[in-house]
Amino acid sequence: MHIVLAGAGHTHIELLRRGSEFRRAGHALTLISPEPYHAYSGMGPGLLSGIYSEVDIVLPAAALARRAGARYIPDRIVSCDTSARVLTLASGAVCDYDLLSLNLGSESMDKRPDDLPGRRVYTAKPIRELSALRVEIERCCRDHDGCEISVIGAGAAGLEIAANAKELLSNFRPQRSVVNLFSSNAAPAGLTGGRREYVERHLARIAVAFFGGMKVPPAEVPGDIIVIATGLQPPQVLRNFDLALAPDGSVLVDRYLRSRSTNRVFAVGDCAYFEEQPLDRVGVYAVRQQSVLMANLMAAAKRGGTQVEAGSGTIPFSATGPYLAGFNLGYGCGLLYKGSWTLSGRPAFVVKDRIDRAFMRRYQK
Ligand SMILES: Cc1cc2nc3c(=O)[nH]c(=O)nc-3n(C[C@H](O)[C@H](O)[C@H](O)COP(=O)(O)OP(=O)(O)OC[C@H]3O[C@@H](n4cnc5c(N)ncnc54)[C@H](O)[C@@H]3O)c2cc1C
What we know:
It is a single chain. 30% of the residues lie in helices and 24% in strands. By secondary structure, it is α/β, with parallel strands linked by helices. The protein folds into two domains: 2-106 and 234-302, FAD/NAD(P)-binding domain (3-Layer(bba) Sandwich); 120-231, 3-Layer(bba) Sandwich (FAD/NAD(P)-binding domain). A hairpin with a 4-residue loop joins strand 6 and strand 7. Helix 5 packs parallel to helix 6. The radius of gyration is 21 Å and the shape is globular. The two termini are 29 Å apart. The mean pLDDT is 94. The protein binds flavin-adenine dinucleotide. Flavin-adenine dinucleotide (FAD) is lined by residues 6-11, 32-35, 38, 41-42, 44-45, 76-77, 103-106, 124-125, 156-157, 160-161, 235, 237, 269-271, 281-284, 286, 326.
């Protein structure tokens, strides 16, 4: 069987690490991803403050594929014909498959407006935008003695970006060091109670101006630099795949992470819509799906891609129970919580950092 992994997201990276298992079972594995490396979003904002370097935050997807004897195609998928089982790539090449797994992630909901002359605009995703943002902030500090940055959207990404951008700015001690964080919700990252109080206190302490309950278009916010962090949506390219999609445009999958349209296509992470229980768009779920996808793809391959039911090596995915949420709030501080448990301040960052680095070591070594 020829198994194609589309995208090098958080779930596929583990399948690539275990790629030799497919080969030993007699299957051929192919990875299609535009870049040979995958930037880990959990550590992305730390790139801004300088806690992490670019080397720290990338996962070597193509190298893992090669080590597993898999083929790596550096390209972007633009459409899929599921009846012919053929993918069309941006280069014009085609790739056929017996089984296909989609781990294509998500993209910024609001695109970069092109009518803001003289101002630099960045989006929270893809994560490489944060490298470019760092370079621009450093340039402003070097050439103009600082800058004003407005982050629009105070979900987890916007909150982390604002706090870490402020730390980077303050390292230069420039004359202008202003960071504004705008949110249509009253509270940052939808936090409540003591968690909300802690984060709002922290933002005030590091002098990030938080404007809650304000839905503002980019043209109306102040600043030399604007970061759009208004939320994530499934990749628009999925509309060119003849697969059943949820209303938000993600691939509808059953409890085995199989497409509702065909047994030969699986989808995981942000690009999938888990019918049984819609999930938050967080990397945590994509990681939790690793072993389930591995088992179910293997079981499907063993049966020649035909219907595989419970008990034949397949595992249903279960999203029950709270997940560990963690924020890097800059200046060595963080917030971690799960259910009713909360940890904040320096200890929270230390724990989050350890978890993130351990995750990376698994693939980087
Ligand atoms: C700044 C920021 C910080 C975040 N911090 C956290 C955090 O701390 N914890 C957490 O749980 N979540 C966090 N998130 C959310 C997290 O980024 C996503 O939920 C997570 O990345 C989803 O993982 P994924 O495996 O589905 O896809 P991704 O990690 O986005 O991977 C998608 C892959 O698909 C590839 N791809 C895309 N389109 C194509 C195509 N057409 N053809 C081929 N390949 C393609 C991409 O190149 C990439 O390799 C954060 C998000 C942002 C923006």
